[in-house]
Amino acid sequence: MSKAFTKEDDTEVELDDELPDLPGGVTNYMTPEGLQRLRDEFRNLQQDERPKIVETVSWAAGNGDRSENGDYIYGKKRLREIDRRMRFLLKRIESAEIVDPRKQTDKTRAFFGATVTYLNAAGEEKMVRIVGIDEARSEFNEISWISPVARALLKAEAGDEVEVRTPKGIERLEVVKIAY
Hints:
2 domains; two-stranded parallel sheet; alpha/beta; Chitinase A, domain 3
């Protein structure tokens, strides 16, 4: 049968969120800065990127045959990606429990939001900031509070030695400094 005589299906396939749900029993802790980044991304998708793609799809749809129209096909795919990301961001924003590290009263221990400097077994000094799951960025030395290193560092004080279970075995870390 010729493709020209088949009915084009305009229904969109519902895709899952691009990132998995939070692990069971885990609270979605987030710093105020991390929440603001998620809100900014949501606002950018909603107010800038999505309207531009809708305009492109509308224009492409007016050009006739949609089956071979690259602008239409790509635009519809991109709209689904944007909508999926917006749903994900909205769920994470709604479930966020804000923890402001500046309000931490005990600044001698490492808690959520702390910047911790430690020495690893090789004597290398490393500095990490303990943040929420959705705001961890390795390029800024931010690690999720549920990561093995962060879990080992939580509640530690300067001078403490903590153990981290890694794929290579157990590694000892010495806490040097904690800042908020």
